[in-house]
Amino acid sequence: MRLAALERSLRRFERRLSIDRRGRSVWVWLLPPLIGVITGLGSAFMPGIPDDFGWSLRLTLGVFGFVSMTAISAIYLIAFDYDHNQHADELKRR
């Protein structure tokens, strides 16, 4: 029951953005936050950061990675929907 409610809220989110994804899964919207979490964790613990780099700076770097990558991947997902190659060609038959 909770999955159905989440799916309805994701469909409302798509309608607010004027995105028409009929016949496609709404679960694709979980990818941007997932990419952001992976990037945030990876950037906070990436090799090459000096040992004296404090936890506050690592946390700041991780939050920046999360926010920026989530925003970028959501923008690409929205732009991908407006690509003319993603829409079915309407053939005019005479």
Structure description:
This protein is mainly alpha-helical and 94 residues long. The protein has a domain at 24-86. Helices cover 60% and strands 0% of the residues. The protein has helices spanning 2-16, 31-44, 55-81. Helix 2 packs antiparallel against helix 3. Mean pLDDT is 79; it is low at 90-94.
Helix count from the secondary structure assignment: 3
Mean pLDDT: 79
Q: Report how far the terminal alpha carbons are from each other.
A: 47 Å
Strand residue percentage: under 5%
The string of secondary-structure elements, in order, is HHH
Largest sheet composition: none
The Cα radius of gyration reads: 19 Å
- In which range does the helix fraction lie? 55-70%
Structural class: mainly alpha
Poorly predicted spans? 90-94
How does the overall form come out from the CA principal axes? elongated
Q: List how many beta strands DSSP finds.
A: 0
